[in-house]
Write a structure and sequence with these properties.
eight-stranded parallel beta sheet
């Protein structure tokens, strides 16, 4: 990692030697024009021990970051006292000197044409003699972000996957804690501050806004114990990134891409194969710790009958099979063993999944008995207890991932899970354990360095073909090490759990398909949830195009709830989910956003899908402009059809006030009006037929609308078409299917299609009135 940074810095700031070579000439070169002023400049204040950053705008330098005061704390708790601060001649580095420590901050800004107002801070620490250890470092120390004002909303990111993440209204004087990244929507400029890598420390921000909506920002890199050797190249810390721009969503997108690349440069991870976002069944919310071998087999049979392996691809066994935490072979509820079970799953055409909490060790396990020296210790030197769980074997502790013997054991365990037990998909849970507060690894390196080394051992043991899903994982340190990652709390089987999970899904959607595939949690749709609540969770989880796992007893799932699972499994929504009101949160409300849109959801026809939610306990009207949601002019006439209820809301121009039942959602298909018969949508899937509707055509001569479909599985679905004024729908017939006409509003027609095969041609024939 250190050598990677040393190679990276010349590439970012430019090599003087290379520059001389590039400009070398065999003959005297003509006089060069005066160099253009730099787009940014760094200044320092020796009296205040602060640095600032100005940006060139309109021919003069204007403040972007002011009064940044770096600090550092030794592992004994003492603060580092800087003796001096200086700036290099080219303005690309800042140096702070103490009696025993030097902090170098390499400052790199990008060309304004590539990425306006973006700067990267690359810190390196140097010790005058061996034996120096650091507990924390801050580069900003209360810096004022003068380049962004009038902030109205701030993204606060939780520490690990289960922790709450949300966009909150800005309130004056509030100290806002955000882990790994913080962003705020302002006018005319928004800002983002994030760590490009979290491979050394546990990184966070504190942001406080004044009455003008300007932020004071302090970063904190928690190292716990970083040994700084006395050597020429020093010890690099995690890189910090600051960006300012009009669109906060663009800033997040650019940051996510940059962090993925930079993390791999700083700490390369083992390569692994990509999977399509998995769909499947998980045992947890139906059986919890009482899962048995026969339950898995029964749901395997139900999955084959209801879905088939092309739609529902993974059968995953969750917590409850193990002898104890740490002893991951099966207990008496699984008399035939792991391999017998995975063979049955594979024989039916599915992939086999297994849940493991790799760092968890209970007092009832053989690992605890045989290797007490492997346990993570607290600062007092005694084993750090995580919690008590009788189902796991009593008091639960964490393995210390800094120990080579522990990493070797993890490698062996996951090699066994894939090679001997036959699992293809591994959900690794409670990953935050070895980074718990007030603990210290006994091996070399920081806790984060030990954590990443352990996850690499897990990956190398499991092999590159295995799908690894992180859960309960610290966000920043897990980048690059898992295929998928849980990004919200347990949804449970109640409305509060759904709302909390949906809030995280919205706030962390920008991570999806960049750092990993987002796992919103299982698709819980059964009672005691109402149908409306089940619809709301199906939409908020399914529209992300992330993981989609059914749960519970599939054979006992009511037909109306099974229909929701069919709409979400497999994920059939095109990428590009937009949370339209993410950045306009209501003061005093902690509800998730209300309007989620997938533009151009149906390639075969111009159709947008919009989920309109009501998170409250009373029916409420939601005001939307359907054409705007579809990326059209507000006055454009569009058809609006609800794929959940089958209601046709008519042709809308301008704003629409639509009632949404309490604790529920509408799933609106929006398509521009062509003044001729056209497809309004289907309820085959959440994408209104994405991946199934292969062609839509209108033949004026025969007044015939043709819709060609290819279904992933043979099951009934609804389809809606328009009936323009002056025309009558005479017939709607489908090849290889039975058709039943359903009640529908004027201007539309809806039918239920019961297919007999997977390829269907539907023809609607019209006549003039």
């Amino acid at each position: 990692m250190r050598s990677a940074l040393m190679l990276l810095i010349p590439l970012l700031v430019g090599s003087p030697t290379a520059a001389r070579r590039r400009h070398a000439r065999p003959h005297p070169a003509p006089t060069k024009p005066a160099a253009a002023p730099a787009p940014m400049r760094v200044t320092v204040s020796p009296s205040e021990m602060t640095w600032s950053l100005d940006e060139l705008r309109g021919g003069k330098y204007l403040p972007l970051v002011t009064g940044a005061r770096p600090t550092a704390t030794r592992s004994d708790g003492s603060s580092v006292a800087w003796r001096s601060i200086g700036r290099s001649a080219d303005g690309h580095s800042i140096t702070l000197m103490a009696d025993d420590l030097k902090l170098l901050i390499v400052v790199q800004w990008l060309d304004a044409k590539r990425l306006p107002s973006a700067v990267t801070l690359l810190p390196v620490v140097y010790a005058r003699s061996n034996g120096l250890t650091l507990k924390s470092v801050s580069l900003l120390g209360g810096a004022r972000l003068a380049g962004a004002r009038n902030a109205s909303a701030v993204l606060l990111n939780g520490y690990q996957g289960w922790d709450a993440s949300r966009v909150a209204p800005v309130t004056t004087g509030t100290d806002n804690l955000s882990w790994w990244v913080v962003a705020a929507k302002g006018s005319p400029h928004s800002f983002l501050a994030g760590y490009l890598s979290s491979v050394v420390g546990l990184n966070s921000f504190h942001a406080a806004f004044d009455a003008s909506g300007s932020a004071a920002l302090t970063d904190a890199e928690d190292l716990r114990r970083l040994s700084v050797p006395a050597r020429a190249d020093g010890a690099p810390l995690d890189a910090l990134y600051l960006a300012f721009g009009a669109s906060v969503n663009t800033l997040l997108k650019q940051y996510a891409a940059a962090a993925k690349v930079f993390t791999n440069v700083m700490d390369p991870a083992p390569a692994f194969q990509a999977w399509p976002a998995p769909s499947g069944w998980c045992s947890w919310y139906g059986y919890y710790g009482d899962i048995r071998e026969d339950d898995v087999l029964a749901n395997l049979t139900a999955a084959a009958a209801e879905f088939g392996p092309k739609a529902l691809r993974v059968i995953q066994l969750d917590d409850g099979f193990q002898q104890a935490a740490g002893d991951w072979d099966v207990n008496a509820k699984f008399p035939h063993g792991h391999r017998w079970l995975t063979d049955r799953i594979h024989d039916r055409g599915y992939r086999a999944g297994l849940w493991i909490a790799p760092f968890a060790v209970s007092a009832g396990s053989t690992v605890y008995r045989d290797h007490p020296d492997w346990l993570l210790k607290g600062e007092d030197g005694t084993p750090a207890k995580m919690w008590t769980n009788a189902g796991w074997g009593g008091d639960v502790y964490s393995l210390d991932p800094s120990l080579p013997a522990v990493r070797s054991w993890l490698w062996t365990l996951f090699r066994k899970a894939t090679r001997e037990w036959g699992y293809d998909y591994l959900k690794i849970d409670f990953l935050y354990y070895p980074l718990s507060p007030n603990t210290l690894p006994r091996g070399p390196g920081t806790p984060v360095e030990a954590y990443r080394a352990a996850l690499k051992a897990i990956r190398q043991g499991a092999g590159p073909k295995a799908y690894i899903l992180g859960c309960g994982a610290p966000i920043g340190p897990t980048i690059g090490l898992v295929n998928g990652n849980r990004i919200g709390p347990d949804v449970s089987t109640g409305w509060p759990g759904i709302k909390a999970a949906a809030r995280n899904v919205a706030a962390r959607q920008w991570m999806h398909n960049v750092w990993w595939q987002n796992d919103p949690d299982a698709l819980v749709v059964r009672p005691p949830l109402t149908e409306g609540q089940a619809r709301a969770w199906t939409a908020s989880a399914g529209l992300t195009a992330g993981l989609a796992l059914a749960t519970g007893n599939l054979a006992d799932t009511p037909a109306d709830r099974a229909a929701l699972l069919h709409m979400a499994i497999p994920a059939a929504v095109r990428p590009g989910l937009r949370i339209d009101d993410l950045w306009t949160p209501s003061a005093g409300s902690d509800d998730p956003p209300s309007i989620w849109t997938v533009p151009n959801a149906l390639p075969a026809a111009p159709l947008t899908v919009a989920a309109v939610f009501n998170w409250t306990d009373a029916t409420a009207a939601r005001d939307i402009t359907p054409a705007t949601l579809a990326g059209l002019a507000p006055s454009r006439r569009v058809h609006v059809w609800d794929a959940f209820s089958g209601d046709y809301l008519g042709i809308v121009s301008g704003r629409l006030s639509t009632p949404v039942e309490a604790a529920s959602a509408r799933l609106l298909a929006i398509t521009p009006d062509t003044k001729r018969p056209q497809l309004l949508g289907t309820d085959i899937n959440l994408g209104a037929g994405n991946g199934c509707v292969e062609g839509v055509s209108w033949t004026p001569k025969y007044r015939a609308l043709k819709v060609r479909l290819k279904l992933p599985r043979v099951r009934p679905f609804r389809i809606a078409v328009s009936v323009p004024s002056g025309l009558t729908l005479d017939t709607l017939e489908c090849s290889s299917a039975d058709v039943e006409r359903l009640p529908s509003a004027e201007g539309s027609a809806m039918v239920r299609i019961s297919p007999k095969g997977s390829e269907i041609l539907c023809i609607s024939r019209y006549s003039k009135r």
